[in-house]
Amino acid sequence: MAEYKLNTPLTDQDIAQLKAGDVVFLTGTIYSARDAAHKKLVDLLDAGKELPFDLKGAAIYYVGPSPAPPGRPIGAAGPTTSYRMDSYAPRLYSLGLKATIGKGKRDAPTRQAMQDYTAVYFGATGGAGALLSNSIVESNVIAFDELGPEAIREMKVEDFPLLVINDSHGGELYAVPDRKAAGIE
Amino acid sequence: MRTIQTSDIVDAVAKMCVSSNTELPADVRARLESAMAEETSPSAKEVIRQLLENADLAFDTKLPLCQDCGLAVYFVEVGDEVRIEGGNLRDAINEGTRKGYADGYLRKSACDPLSRANTGDGTPAVIHFDFVPGDKLKISYMAKGGGAENMSRVTMLAPAQGWEGIKKFVINRVAEAGPNPCPPTVIGVGIGGTFEHAAKIAKRGLLRKLDDTHPDPEIAAKEKELEDAINALGIGPMGLGGKTTVLGVKITMEPCHLASLPLAVNVQCHSQRHEEVVL
């Protein structure tokens, strides 16, 4: 398992080298978007309108941070469960999105899209919201302010610690539950 | 009769919301530390290390442990010799929630189920009332995050399925949830009652300490049996493999209809945020 330092925007070369289990420290600009924001993004696409940020080479972080207390750029900011964004992810990958960041399993079409469009799914540690916020040095709402915690934020990150869960070659890191050992098979 | 002012309830509830979201319970920390010693896989150790570092950081900075500060759930025991003065008990608990989520910079996650419009203040809370003998008011708070809650299920088994059926359903549920609910999780199992009561007692079981032992030795043995079987699944911290898939299993059992065997599995994330106050 290798360790990489990558910068945004991400290129096909950046992504193609990654294998499930690799550790990546990401620096640059990433965008927050979760359930309601994804619906709005897809509505914009359907209407033929421009998105609030450029998907090309982009990384979307599935996060709804807690409010920033005085003196900090952001509150706690750990990942939310990713499968809820699976109905939108293949389309966004097809339009140039290179990485999504979250926790939990992805569905088969989303995993296939990562292979088709040389993209990746990173895991961040769920529940480590205070710790992960330390890697976010700046955060500004750029769209859908009315969604509150679900608004789209442009965030500057420095050495954001990520783990490659699904790579662009069909590899996946998650353990397969051993039902036999658990005595139910 | 003993009189309790709603203003005291508001303050106590607000304080609990903040401290629960920023301070990892001592029993959870102890269990994570023992899991750290048991785990051999580097990824499992790294996840637990990050969770412990996160807890230290949250304590020092007063940032919430997790950005998902949960929907506020309360179990309230009202002594029958208690009189609430200054307003309504439910309103006071909601007001305390509003105050705590604002004061603590906690994320407000309550929204309309269809329009998804955020109510903006973390309310309404989900409140379960119970009436008990005595002159005390006990309020237990639980921050119930969406990721873990979504992995919970209720089912109605046939009585003939018995313990084997219960065991199979619970283990399968944890297996299917996999990495989604932020393992290592705590599993509340509600057996009996009715459809809705099974779910309620499954959740109420999550108020117990991780290191307690069920007073009924037979149920205590069943909790251990489930815990060992689930940990044998090898899902591990964050689903990356390992020996620690659950930190604990808490069974609550109550009588049910002779035709039924209601079963509920309520999944709680590793930080198991809950606290109680007695007024």
TrEMBL record, chain A:
NCBIfam families: PRK06842.1, ttdB_fumA_fumB
Coiled coil: none
UniProt source species: Pseudodesulfovibrio hydrargyri
EC number: 4.2.1.2
Key words of the record: Lyase
Family: Belongs to the class-I fumarase family.
Domain of life: Bacteria
EC category: lyase
Protein encoded by which gene: fumB_2
One Pfam short name: Fumerase_C
GO molecular function: fumarate hydratase activity
Domain Fe-S hydro-lyase tartrate dehydratase beta-type catalytic, residue spans: 5-175
Protein's name according to its UniProt entry: Fumarate hydratase class I, anaerobic
TrEMBL record, chain B:
Fe-S hydro-lyase tartrate dehydratase alpha-type catalytic domain ranges (all copies): 11-277
Single annotated GO MF: L(+)-tartrate dehydratase activity
Class of the enzyme per the UniProt entry, highest EC level: lyase
Organism: Pseudodesulfovibrio hydrargyri
Keywords of this entry: 4Fe-4S, Iron, Iron-sulfur, Lyase, Metal-binding
EC number, as in UniProt: 4.2.1.32
Protein name, UniProt field: L(+)-tartrate dehydratase subunit alpha
Annotated family: Belongs to the class-I fumarase family.
Keyword 4Fe-4S included in the entry's annotation: yes
Record has Ligase as a keyword: no
Pfam families: Fumerase
Alphabetized PANTHER family for the sequence: FUMARATE HYDRATASE-RELATED, L(+)-TARTRATE DEHYDRATASE SUBUNIT ALPHA-RELATED
Residue ranges the record marks as coiled coil: none
